[in-house]
Each structure stands twice: as structure tokens, then as C-alpha cells.
Specification:
Chain B: InterPro entries: ABC_transp_permease, BCAA_transport_permease. Chain B: Keywords: Amino-acid transport, Cell membrane, Membrane, Transmembrane, Transmembrane helix, Transport. Chain B: Belongs to the binding-protein-dependent transport system permease family. LivHM subfamily. Chain B: One of its GO terms (biological process) is amino acid transport. The complex is a heterotrimer. Chain A is of the alpha/beta class. Chain A contains 13 helices and 14 strands. Chain A has helices at residues 2-23, 39-58, 78-92, 103-116, 144-157, 171-187, 205-213, 228-238, 254-260, 262-265, 287-301, 309-327, 333-341, and strands spanning 25-32, 66-73, 96-99, 120-122, 137-139, 162-168, 190-197, 219-223, 245-247, 269-272, 346-347, 352-353, 369-374, 377-380. A two-stranded antiparallel sheet of chain B has the order 1-2. Chain B has helices at residues 2-32, 39-55, 60-83, 91-112, 138-160, 162-172, 174-179, 184-206, 216-231, 236-257, 262-276; strands at 129-131, 134-136. In chain B, helix 1 runs parallel beside helix 5 (138-160), helix 1 (2-32) runs antiparallel to helix 8 (184-206) and helix 2 packs parallel to helix 4. By secondary structure, chain C is mainly alpha-helical. Chain C has a domain at 30-242. In chain C, 76% of the residues lie in helices and 1% in strands. Chain C has helices at residues 5-19, 27-52, 61-78, 82-104, 109-129, 131-134, 147-153, 160-184, 186-196, 198-203, 208-234, 244-257, 262-279, 286-300, 305-317, and strands at residues 140-141, 236-237. Chain C has a two-stranded antiparallel ribbon with strand order 1-2. The longest helix of chain C is centred in the last third of the chain and has 27 residues, at 208-234. Chain C is globular and about 55 Å long. Chain C starts with a helix and ends with a helix. Classes of the chains: A alpha/beta, B mainly alpha, C mainly alpha. Chains B and C meet through helix 4, helix 9 and helix 11 of B and helix 5, helix 10, helix 12 and helix 14 of C.
């Protein structure tokens, strides 16, 4: 008899425990490209989002309610992204969405977000995501245009004005190539060579040979992400080209140094975030603690995988969203949107965010830091 | 002059990568008339398992050996559990089975190993060799030598050994092969093991040049398949020639015309060659079965 | 009363299309339903090419790309209404298929496969590389055809997913009806004859080259219309639509369901569209299960799901 009572009691306890979170939980939706051609961006994003929801719940959730994450992998396909966004809004009933690893998937998701009036924080670079400003769409990464600007500023400071451009044919590389060509016109940089490569090509020496042969060329810029830029860096060293080499923020990760080989990557410059140089930051720098904490947590959660700027974008999006959810008077989408719009001085890994009704990017050029690879590590270019 | 040489070096390096993948296609095709679309996954497995082995502290040769043996076993399993039971199915069904297998292998790899991109250290260092103003990486020589060695071994196998001829006989007429006492089951098992092993070896050789990840197999299989068809499917000579030709076309287009049209020109030439030689450059004459 | 296979196929299709929405709890289901229809339209084209005529294409997504980009580019550059752009895109795809098909269809088996693959790769490459025209790899916006607004004027109010469910469903129904009629027509009989044996068909006086070309052009038009509908409802199109993997997906849908029958193709399209939605619960294991399903169906039911099921039922009945 006693056993039955204990059993029944235990059963009731389990049932209560199982039922409780269903009574009060806040659903957060995410659509990222965990697999597919953009998986080197989407995988750290997915890991970060999962980790941060766990952290949030460990700290007691939002106003005492647990957060529940619904995350879908769109494989880099915008049509799938749109379907999953519809599912999140219509079927899962999320209060807000994070994701859109590539510009294409972001544009697909934002169409759903705007139509159903659910806040969405995008993790992709293109400026058209937030320009013109759409009521429910925000983004955390700086734009490709800003990356080009930062690189060109650094080149000009070194007296380099005639450059060669080599870009991946994927969305990231092609979009940044177009932006850099546009920005070059207004910043006194002359692009004298314009080459491309497939993201999974094994050798880019023909393109680099042609770039090297251009008369008067002073530097080379590579826009791309994933393994392509590492192959470029190795081919660059193989050909013995001594011109300064610039990479994009698409490879701001230790994985890039590993794939390129420290010797080959020596002296390569790229615009990155504080994330990679947390230890080098001034102790008074407001970003120092944020980036060091994220780096430590991510590397523990991801089993030693190195942090990248892309995971950092997801981190910042989740921070902004969590803060907005805590601040918003209700869990209604419009209230959450207003709270996100009210974000000021929020320190993330990418920079300090100040959103407003007319600015859904919230960052300026100061968010970027020019980094240089030195002895297999990073150093800040002053 | 040194530019042309550099383009040729690039073309031969990339071409040897394609040829290595294409060579893997030939044995299975010869034994069973099946184009194995999972061949790219064998190359991926060779690279990924070696990387995991090296990360676990094994010396590279041992890690590579384990990778090749494991991949060969996976090839045998593919034949036993997926291809053999579907014997006699139409070509499209077999294509779908091998594509299903490649999705399956990719899925398992991503869970068992990881989703990261990895590179193996070059076998003989990264210091380029200078030849007449062009530069060659020592690893390129390894890849080219590997492609040539596998080609010669396959050619000897198919023309000089009894087993190799048995493989060809099985492909031509399975029933007749059985009648003359060839163990066609063994031939199938052997050819899947060999194809997988060749794929894995290719993976080990190219990973220092082309970093590997669980998703690298599709693009390799696509280019390898195109190279094999360009040369003529089933003929090791065709695989080697097709691979090198494809690599050279890409490099020369990038060098002299425009890198924007590198891949387009390659596929355009494949179409043109197939219109002129409907069975590829070294393909046998078509005999239509009624 | 005994229904002919054609009538029974259309009846099953109509009942499923009309009855399903009664079980739809949200707009998401309409969205998935409309995707099933769009994929089915392309797959019915594959059924004509592969199931009827026995020809393989690993590049048909190229025609989806042409149809889709027609809806983005023709309105923007020539002021064509998007609805007309669908027709223009289909005509363009048909014309391209006619020109490309002549030399390509002389090839057989895997050589045909690699040539069509090359064609598809070329199309997707042009779409990705010519950014000044196509918007590059990130794709391009597609205008609203305004049909939903038209319906609203006559008092029919539908949500966006509901509208596309109904519209794509209607197009699929017409497409299936045409394909079933084609099967019994002289052209269809010629196609099925050459599927059996080209030599025998030729001996029987069939112009084999012309019959194959017909099938290729018709299937290209189906693919193009599917691409247009996808672009219009997504309001965005990217070069992935024309990619190699998408071509493979279409062939897989046709073959899994049973390439020989229209209903089989549609069933395969439904299965492979729904499966990834269901498999999301498996998270990391999604691809493993998908690959496994493909292999198992092909090993144990090589004729495809619907024909195998039919055979099973008939075997019991007789």
C-alpha cells in the first residue's frame, strides 16, 4: 500500500513538473542555415542560440517564465526559410524570431515577419535588410558596406590606393564585392583587377597570377567566407606575392588561421569584432568582459570549436531580444518591437547597439576593429 | 611564359584532384554499370577520418590507413545492403539509391565527427618549388603522382590480372560471366571495396590542398562525374584524361579569359565534346541492347 | 460504374485538394500544401520525360530557374504583368528546351544525365554570376501578381498562403489532366513505345528523335511554370532554385512515388516536401533518415510507392 502511495505521489510530481513549463513559457523562434553552403556561418549561430537559451533559463528565464526555443535548419534555401518562418509564426506561436544566416534567407524570413507583425532580428550582412527601415525587422551584423569602408580607410592610411579584388561566387562574396566596388568610387580607391573563384575550388593561382601582373597594384582584397579565403592565403604565399593582403570579416575566426597555416597568414589584415582580441582589449573597454565571457562559454558548449564573428552576431541578437523581452510590458509582438527599438547602449560582441525608430542597424563604423594576424594570433591595428 | 607555366601547374593540380575522384567511379561502373553518386562521400570520408585520427594523436600514415580501411568497409556495406538487393532495377532507381546513400553518409559523418572544415598537414612541407618562374607546392606533386599511380595500377589490374578481367566480364554479361565460373558476388564486393579505398586515398592526398568537411563530397562527385563522362565512363584512361582536361580548361580560362566564366567554360566544353563523341573521348562504341 | 485510371487519378487528386484544408489548423499548412503542388507540377513534367519516354534529366531545375527569373525580370525590364510573365517564361523555356534538346537527346543513359546536368549547372551559373541583371547569389525580388487583390474585389478574402494553395492546386489539377490526356494520345503512345525499346519503336515507324524532343519540351514547360509559381509566392527568387541539388530532388520525387504514373509523381512530391517538415523533430538525424528512406523505398519498391501499392492491391483482388 505504502509503495502504491509513494508511486502515485511520484507520478503526480512528474506530471506536475512536465506540465508546469507548458503553462508559462515564452517561445522564441530561430531559422538558421546549420547545414548547406553557409553552414560555416550557420553552425556557430545555431550553437550560440541554443546555448544562450539554456543560460537564460538557468538564470530563471524571463520574468520568471521559461523560454522555449524552436530552431529550424533551412539548409541555406530561402524557400525553406520562408516555410519555416511561416511555421514559427503560425504553428509554433513564437513571440519573436532570430536568424536568417544569409541575405537570401533573411529576405525570405523578413517578408513573413512583416506580414504577420512578429519582430525579427537578422544575422545577415546586406544593407537592404534594414534599408529602408521595416517596422519589425532588425539586424545585428554591420553591413558589408561598412566592412569595405573600414578596409579602404586602413589602406589609405598606409598609402595603398590601387588594389586587386578577388571574390567568392557565393552570396557573401558576391554581395560584398558589389558593395566594395560601389564604395571604392567614393573613397579614392582604384580597383585594377576583379577576379572570382568558386567557394570550393582547390587552387586560385591563375587568378592571383593575373592580379600580381597588374601594373602599379599595391594591395589585394579578398571577399569571401569559409575555406576559399584560406586557399587564397596559401596560394598567395606559394606565389611569393608580397603585397599587403586583406580579408573580409567573413573569416574572422581562428579557424581561418588554422586552415591557412600561421606562416602563410602572417600579416593578413581584416576588419573584425572585439571577439577575437578580447585578451588584448584595454581593461576599461566595455566590450572586454562581454566578449571574454561569450568566448569562454561558447568554446565550452561547442566542444572546443573556435568562436567566430557569426556566432557573435547570434549572441548579440539573443542579448538584445532577451533584454527587450524583460523590458516589454507584455509579450505582444508590438510591445516587444517597441522594446527592441528602445535598445540603447547595449554592449555586444560586435559593438554597442543603439536602435531607434529610424535605425534598425544600431551600429556605426567604430564597431569594427582592424586586426592583423601575427605569429598565429591576432593583434589590433592602431 | 612563366604565367602559362603557372596556369598549367594549377590546371594539372586541380585536374589530378578531379582525376582521382573520376578514377574511383570506374571500377564500380565496370563491375556493375552503376555510377556511384556516393563516390564523393568516399573521398570525404578518407579526409575526415584521417583528420579525426590525426587529432586523436595518431601519426598521419596510420590515420590514413585506418581511414582507407574503414571507407573500404563502408563501400562493401553499401554494396551488400543497398546495391545487391536492388539488382536489376532501372538506372534512375540506382542513381537515387546511391544519392540516398550519400545523404545518409553525410548525415552520419556530421553526427559522428563534426561540421567543421579541416586540413591535413602537407606531406612534404609547404615550401614551394620554383620551376622557370612558376611555383609548385610539394603536395601537388603528391596528388599528381597519386593519380598516375592509381591509373597505372588500375590499368594493369584490368588488362593483366585474371580478377580484373573477371570484373570486365561481369560488366559485359553477368550471366555469361557466371557460366564461365566467375564468382560475380565476389567481383561486386571487391569492386566496391576498391572504389571506396581509391576514393579514401584520394581524400587523404587532396585534404592538404583542398580542406575537407562533411559537405565536400557533393561538389567533388559532380566534378569527378563530369570528368569521368568527358573521358568516357569505365575507362581509367578516360578518367585520367577527362580529369586533367577539366582542370586545365578551368585554369586556362581563369588565366586567359575570365575567372567569372571558369566553370561555365568547363561545362560548355563537356557538352560540346559529348555532342561530337556521344560516349566520351575514350568510350567504347555504343551497342544498343534491344 | 468503373472509373478509368485517368478519371480515378483526377478524382483522388480533387478530393485530397478540397478535403485537406478542413484539417488545416493554421496558414502554415496552406504554405506547405502550396509547396507540394508547386513541386508536383514540376514532377508531373518529369513523369512525362522519365516515366513515359524513359529519358533522364539531371538539369531540369534549370527550367524552374528560367520560369522563376522570367517573373522577376520581365515585369521589371519590359513592364510585363507578372501573370503574363509566367506564360512568356514558359514559352522561353520551351524554346530553349527545343534548341538544347536536339543535340542532347541523342545521348543515352548516363551521358544524357551528365549533359542535362551540364545544362542545369550552366543556367544556375549564369543566374548567379550575372549580378547586374539577376541580382546575383542573393537573388532578386519578384512583384506581386495582384491576383489576390482581384479576388478581394469580388468579395473573396483569402490569406496569402490560402490563395497560393488554391491557385497552385488549380494549376496542378490542369497540369495533371493534360498529362493524363497526353498519355493516351498518339504522342504519348509513341513515347511509351520508345521507353520500351528505341529500336522497336523506330521499326514501328515512330520518329524517335521527334518524340523525345516533344517530351523534353513539354516537361521543360511544366518545370518553368512551377518555377514561376514558386517565385511569385515567395516574392523572391535565388539561383539555388536552378541548382543541381534541386534537379536531383525533382527526379527523386518522381522516382520515389513512381515515375510511371502522374499520381505516383505527385505522391512522391508530397512525400519529399512533407518529410523534411516532419523530420525537424529529429534535428541532427534528419539527413540520416531522409537518405535511409530514399534507399529503402528504391530497394524494396523499385517501381516507386504508388505503382507498387497498386500492384499489391490488384494482386489481392484477382
Amino acid at each position: 500500500m505504502k509503495r502504491i502511495v509513494t508511486g502515485a505521489f511520484a507520478l503526480a510530481l512528474v506530471a506536475t513538473a512536465a506540465a508546469t513549463p507548458a503553462l508559462a513559457e515564452i517561445k522564441i523562434g530561430a531559422v538558421v542555415s546549420e547545414t548547406g553552403p553557409a553552414s560555416s556561418l550557420g553552425d556557430p549561430e545555431a550553437k550560440t542560440i541554443r546555448m544562450m537559451v539554456e543560460e537564460l533559463n538557468a538564470k530563471g528565464g524571463i520574468k520568471g517564465e521559461k523560454a522555449k526555443l524552436v530552431l529550424y535548419d533551412d539548409g541555406g534555401d530561402p524557400s525553406k526559410a520562408k516555410t519555416f518562418a511561416t511555421r514559427l509564426v503560425e504553428d509554433d506561436g513564437v513571440v519573436a524570431m532570430v536568424g536568417g544566416t544569409t541575405t537570401g534567407t533573411s529576405l525570405a524570413i523578413l517578408a513573413v515577419a512583416e506580414e504577420s507583425k512578429v519582430p525579427f532580428i537578422s544575422l545577415a550582412g546586406a544593407i537592404e535588410i534594414i534599408d529602408p527601415v521595416k517596422p519589425f525587422t532588425f539586424k545585428t551584423p554591420h553591413t558589408d558596406r561598412m566592412a569595405c569602408q573600414k578596409i579602404f580607410d586602413d589602406m589609405k592610411a598606409r598609402g595603398l590606393t590601387k588594389i586587386g579584388l578577388i571574390s567568392g561566387t557565393d552570396g557573401f562574396g558576391a554581395s560584398m564585392r558589389a558593395q566594395c566596388i560601389a564604395v571604392a568610387k567614393t573613397s579614392g580607391i582604384e580597383i585594377v583587377a576583379d577576379e572570382t573563384y568558386g567557394p570550393k575550388d582547390a587552387d586560385m593561382t591563375p587568378q592571383l597570377t593575373n592580379i600580381r601582373n597588374k601594373s602599379g597594384i599595391q594591395a589585394v582584397l579578398n571577399t569571401g567566407f569559409g575555406q576559399g579565403p584560406a586557399t587564397i592565403t596559401r596560394n598567395y604565399a606559394q606565389l611569393g606575392i608580397t603585397l599587403p593582403l586583406y580579408q573580409s570579416h567573413g573569416v574572422a575566426s581562428n579557424a581561418f588561421i588554422e586552415l591557412s597555416g600561421a606562416k602563410n597568414a602572417e600579416g593578413v589584415r581584416l576588419p573584425g569584432t572585439a571577439l577575437l582580441v578580447g585578451e588584448l582589449l584595454d581593461p576599461k573597454d566595455p566590450q572586454k568582459n562581454v566578449v571574454l565571457a561569450y568566448k569562454a562559454n561558447f568554446e565550452k558548449a561547442a566542444g572546443g570549436a573556435p568562436v567566430s564573428t557569426f556566432g557573435g552576431y547570434a549572441h548579440d541578437a539573443m542579448r538584445i531580444l532577451t533584454e527587450a523581452l524583460n523590458k516589454a510590458p507584455s509579450a505582444k509582438p508590438a510591445a516587444i518591437r517597441d522594446a527592441i527599438e528602445g535598445t540603447t547602449g547595449l554592449v555586444g560582441t560586435t559593438g554597442t547597439y543603439n536602435y531607434s525608430k529610424t535605425d534598425h542597424l544600431g551600429l556605426d563604423l567604430s564597431a569594427f576593429r582592424m586586426l592583423e594576424i601575427s605569429n598565429g594570433g591576432w593583434k589590433l591595428v592602431k | 611564359m612563366s604565367d602559362l607555366l603557372q596556369f598549367l601547374v594549377s590546371g594539372v593540380t586541380v585536374g589530378a584532384v578531379y582525376a582521382l575522384v573520376a578514377l574511383g567511379f570506374t571500377i564500380i561502373y565496370n563491375a556493375s554499370d552503376v555510377v556511384n553518386f556516393a563516390q564523393g562521400e568516399f573521398v570525404m570520408l578518407g579526409g575526415m577520418i584521417s583528420v579525426a585520427g590525426v587529432a586523436a594523436g595518431l601519426p598521419l600514415p596510420l590515420a590514413a590507413l585506418i581511414a582507407i580501411a574503414l571507407t573500404a568497409a563502408i563501400g562493401v556495406a553499401l554494396n551488400t545492403f543497398a546495391i545487391e538487393p536492388a539488382r536489376g532495377a532501372p538506372v534512375v532507381s540506382l542513381i537515387i539509391i546511391t544519392i540516398g546513400a550519400s545523404i545518409f553518409i553525410r548525415g552520419v559523418t556530421q553526427i559522428v565527427l563534426d561540421k567543421g572544415t579541416h586540413r591535413l598537414p602537407s606531406f612534404s612541407g609547404d615550401d614551394p618549388i620554383h620551376v622557370l618562374g612558376a611555383t609548385v607546392l610539394p603536395q601537388s606533386l603528391w596528388v599528381v603522382a597519386g593519380a598516375v599511380a592509381i591509373f597505372v595500377a588500375l590499368w594493369l589490374f584490368f588488362t593483366r590480372t585474371l580478377t580484373g578481367r573477371a570484373v570486365l566480364a561481369t560488366s559485359n554479361n553477368r550471366l555469361a560471366a557466371q557460366l564461365v565460373g566467375i564468382n560475380t558476388r565476389f567481383v561486386m564486393t571487391l569492386s566496391f571495396a576498391l572504389s571506396a579505398a581509391i576514393g579514401a586515398l584520394a581524400g587523404v592526398l587532396i585534404t592538404p590542398i583542398l580542406p575537407t568537411s562533411f559537405e565536400i563530397g557533393i561538389s567533388l562527385a559532380l566534378k569527378g562525374f563530369a570528368a569521368a563522362m568527358l573521358g568516357g565512363m569505365g575507362n581509367p584512361k578516360g578518367a585520367l584524361a577527362g580529369g586533367l582536361l577539366l582542370g586545365l580548361m578551368e585554369a586556362l580560362t581563369a588565366g586567359y579569359i575570365s575567372s567569372h566564366y571558369k566553370d561555365a567554360v568547363a561545362f560548355f566544353v563537356i557538352l560540346a565534346v559529348l555532342f561530337a563523341f556521344p560516349r566520351g573521348l575514350y568510350g567504347s562504341n555504343p551497342v544498343e541492347r534491344v | 460504374m468503373r472509373l478509368s485510371p485517368k478519371q480515378s487519378t483526377l478524382l483522388v487528386l480533387a478530393v485530397l485538394m478540397i478535403a485537406s484544408p478542413f484539417f488545416f489548423p493554421s496558414n502554415y499548412y496552406y504554405r506547405v500544401g502550396s509547396l507540394v503542388f508547386v513541386n508536383s507540377i514540376a514532377v508531373v513534367g518529369i513523369v512525362i520525360l522519365t516515366g513515359y519516354a524513359g529519358q533522364i534529366s539531371l538539369g531540369h531545375a534549370g527550367f524552374l530557374g528560367i520560369g522563376g527569373y522570367a517573373c522577376a525580370l520581365l515585369p521589371a525590364h519590359f513592364g510585363l504583368p507578372p501573370a503574363l510573365a509566367v506564360v512568356a517564361g514558359a514559352a522561353l523555356s520551351g524554346a530553349i528546351a527545343y534548341v538544347v534538346g536536339r543535340p542532347i537527346l541523342k545521348l543515352k543513359g548516363y551521358y544524357l544525365a551528365v549533359a542535362t546536368l551540364g545544362f542545369g549547372v550552366l543556367v544556375s551559373m549564369v543566374l548567379a554570376n550575372e549580378g547586374w541583371l539577376t541580382g546575383g547569389p542573393d537573388g532578386i525580388k519578384v512583384p506581386d501578381p495582384g491576383l489576390r487583390a482581384l479576388l478581394e474585389q469580388v468579395g473573396i478574402e483569402l490569406t496569402n498562403p490560402q490563395f497560393w494553395y488554391a491557385f497552385c492546386g488549380l494549376v496542378l489539377f490542369i497540369g495533371a489532366w493534360l498529362a493524363l490526356n497526353l498519355r493516351e494520345s498518339p504522342t504519348g503512345r509513341a513515347l511509351r513505345a520508345l521507353h520500351g525499346s528505341e529500336v522497336a519503336a523506330r521499326t514501328a515507324g515512330i520518329d524517335v528523335a521527334k518524340a523525345k524532343l516533344n517530351a523534353f519540351v513539354i516537361s521543360a514547360v511544366y518545370a518553368s511554370v512551377a518555377g514561376s509559381l514558386l517565385a511569385l509566392q515567395n516574392r523572391l527568387i535565388t539561383p539555388d532554385v536552378a541548382g543541381f541539388m534541386h534537379s536531383i530532388e525533382l527526379v527523386t520525387m518522381a522516382v520515389l512515388g513512381g515515375a510511371g504514373s502522374v499520381l505516383g509523381g505527385i505522391f512522391g512530391a508530397a512525400l519529399l516536401t512533407l518529410l523534411p517538415q516532419v523530420l525537424t523533430v529529429l534535428q541532427d538525424y534528419e539527413h540520416v533518415v531522409l537518405g535511409l528512406v530514399m534507399m529503402l523505398v528504391m530497394i524494396f519498391l523499385p517501381a516507386g510507392l504508388i505503382p507498387s501499392a497498386r500492384r499489391l492491391l490488384r494482386g489481392r483482388g484477382e
